[in-house]
Structures are given as C-alpha cells and as structure tokens.
Amino acid sequence: MKIIWNRELKKIVLAAAAAFLFSSFLVNFLVGKYVADARTEYNEMLAALFGSVMQAYPDVKEEEVIEVLNETGNGNRGADILARYGVYEDYGASSFAEKEGQFLFVTVWANGILILVYLLVGVLFFLYLGKRQQEIAHLTEYMIALNRDRYELEMENNEDDELSGLRNELYKLTVLLKEQTQEALEQRQALADTMVNISHQLKTPLTSVTVLADNLSDNPDMDRETRQHFLAEITRQITGMSWLITAMLKRARLDADVVELENTRLGVKELVEEVIERLELATEWKNLTISVNISEDAQFMADRKWMSEALMNIVKNALEHSPVGGRVEITGEENEIYTQIFIRDYGKGITEEERKKLFQRFYNGSSVREDSVGIGLALAKEIVEKEGGSIFVDSSPNRGTTFTLRFMKS
C-alpha cells in the first residue's frame, strides 16, 4: 500500500516526532528523578549504617566495613534479622551495586516500552492512512471522471465513516449534474429544432416578399390595382414575420425563466372584452360574431399582460377555425374551488391524433390556414401553466372545438 507524502502527512509525522521526543524526555526525566531520589535515600541509609557501625566498632578498619557491606552472600540472613525488628526490610537483600543495576533496568525498560508503543501506534496509523488515501484517490478519480461527463458513482461500499458524508454529497451532486446535463441537451436540441422551424417559417414569406418587391421594381408601369395588391401582400407577409419573431421572443423568455409574473386579481369579463377589442379587425374580416356570457363577479389571480396574451392566442385560434359568418362563444363560471373560461368555435373540429399534438411548437393540423405558424397555442399553454392553471381541449370532427382554462383558488 503506497503512502503519498503530501504536505499534510509531513506535518503529522513531524508533530508525532515532536510528541515522541517530548514524551521520551518526560519519561526519562521522571524515571531519572525517581532513581535520583531512590539513590539519595539508599545512600543516606548506607551512610547512617556505616556511621553506626564505625561508632560501635571504632577498632574495625573502614575497608573491612565497606567489604562487608558489598557482600551479598549473607543477604538472606540479614533480611531475616532486620525483618524481626521491622527495620529496612526491602533493603536487606541487595547491595549498593545491585541497586544501581535495578535503577538502570527501570530506565532502559521505560524507554523501550515507550518506543514500542510509538512504533505500534505508527504502524496502525500508516495502515489507516493508506486506506484513507486510497479512498480519497478513488473520489479524486471520480471527480476527474465527473468533469468529463461520466456520471457513475459506486455506492455499494458506503461505510459509516467521515468520508461517507462526502461520498453521499458527491452522489447527490452526480444525480443533479446528470439531470442538468440531460436537461441542457434537451434544451439545446429544442433550440436547434426551434431555429430550424423559424428558418423554415421565415423562408416562405421572405421569398414572397422578395418576388413581389422584384416585380414592383422591374415593372414601374404596373397598373395601380396590381401595385396596391402587391404592396398589401408584402405588408401582410412582413406583419406575419414580425408576429412570429415577437412570439418566439416571448416563448424564449418563458423558456429561460426570466419572466416575473405579477399575481393580481383580474376580472374575467373585463379581460375577455379587452382581448375581443384587440381582435376586432380579424372578427370583422370574416364577419364573425363573438358572444360573451360571463358574470361580472368572476375573478382569478394572474398577470394581466401575459394572461391577455394567452387568451388572445386561444381566441384568435377559434376565429381562424370558424367559418365565414360563424360565431365564437366565450363563457365563464366560478365556484369556491376554481374559475373556468370556455372558448368555443363551430368549425371543422380536430381529430384525436391532432389533439395530442395541438400544443406542440410549429405543429399545424389539417384544418389550419396555410400561413399559420403553429406557435400561438403552445405559447398560450406555457403561460397558463406558469400561472398555475390548466388548459383542456374538447373537440371532434365537424362539431367544433372548446378550449377550457381552469384556475384553482388558493
């Protein structure tokens, strides 16, 4: 198991070495003090004994007394004698030289035990450190792989230790990054599809405008009626392109979640009448009748500007699908649970298959106008859902279509 000698590990080893030197000094100091105290006590006892013997037997030579004191053969006999009188029983079996040997033995063993303890702790520490460094190395490798968009983290060996918390957080981060990456890929694909669809939708009117403008330029003597017709068609095509770009910008703002919706109380009838007024020209062009049957008290909470945009797109869709001279009915109801708005036309209706794709961007069913770009309903649905509402469609061929907007009360 290879140990990586990083800066932190070197600091730990230096701290351990300092602790070993300090503890070694402390042990030797304490043992030395104990030996010094014992030696002093022993020497004082020998001095007192030597003085007593010399006082009692002044005729005996000092050398003979020292020789007797250094002899160990009579230790047991002396110990027995002293024990009977309770005098210095522990000192009767050893000479001065033997005591010095015992003191040295204590010092050596104290240092040896200290060294063994530190060696054992050091071995266990390095085994533990090697395992920890291996786990950290695995997490480091995983972070490198994560940076390369590889979102796989093994959680089978998730032991209950300090690194388990880090591993769990990395797992949460992995799941989050994986979801964000998938979402980003989907948004990128949606953006690419949107750009393709916009290019396709703008290509036809741009071509028409170019052809009409060339005809006007190449035929300065064109009759007034034809010229007015060409100019009106150019205006219509440019207006359509302008609406498409504006609608796409609004949808992009909603997709980017940068729109701050104001939550205000709106009167349903007032909002509907405002939308009808904005669509007055379209209504008159097809000689349509819009009937409104909504209570004055019906209300709900939403952003006026964006809700007006959504409602206008749905009503405009109803007008486009109504036959010339037909009618569109807008009704509303309110109860303690929700407020609902119904927009019904009496056109050709749509099939079940078309209803499933109705709110997809740039989808055009079989009954829509040729110049429709298929973004109004998708934008309306996005706005309604961001306002916390729901939108439903009820339709069948030759029976018309009804859009239902439902806003729950909090």
Automatic annotation (TrEMBL):
GO terms for cellular component: plasma membrane. Keywords: Kinase, Membrane, Phosphoprotein, Transferase, Transmembrane, Transmembrane helix, Two-component regulatory system. It holds the Pfam family HATPase_c. It catalyses: ATP + protein L-histidine = ADP + protein N-phospho-L-histidine. Its EC number is 2.7.13.3. Coiled coil: none annotated. The chain crosses the membrane at residues 12-36, 103-129. InterPro entries: BphY/WalK/GraS-like (IPR050351), HATPase_C_sf (IPR036890), HATPase_dom (IPR003594), His_kinase_dom (IPR005467), HisK_dim/P_dom (IPR003661), HisK_dim/P_sf (IPR036097), Sig_transdc_His_kin-like_C (IPR004358). SMART domains: HATPase_c, HisKA. It is found in: Membrane. One of its GO terms (biological process) is cellular response to phosphate starvation. GO terms for molecular function: phosphoprotein phosphatase activity; phosphorelay sensor kinase activity. CDD domains: HisKA. It comes from the Bacteria. Residues 197-410 form the Histidine kinase domain. Its main location: membrane. This is histidine kinase. It comes from Acetatifactor muris. The gene is phoR_15.
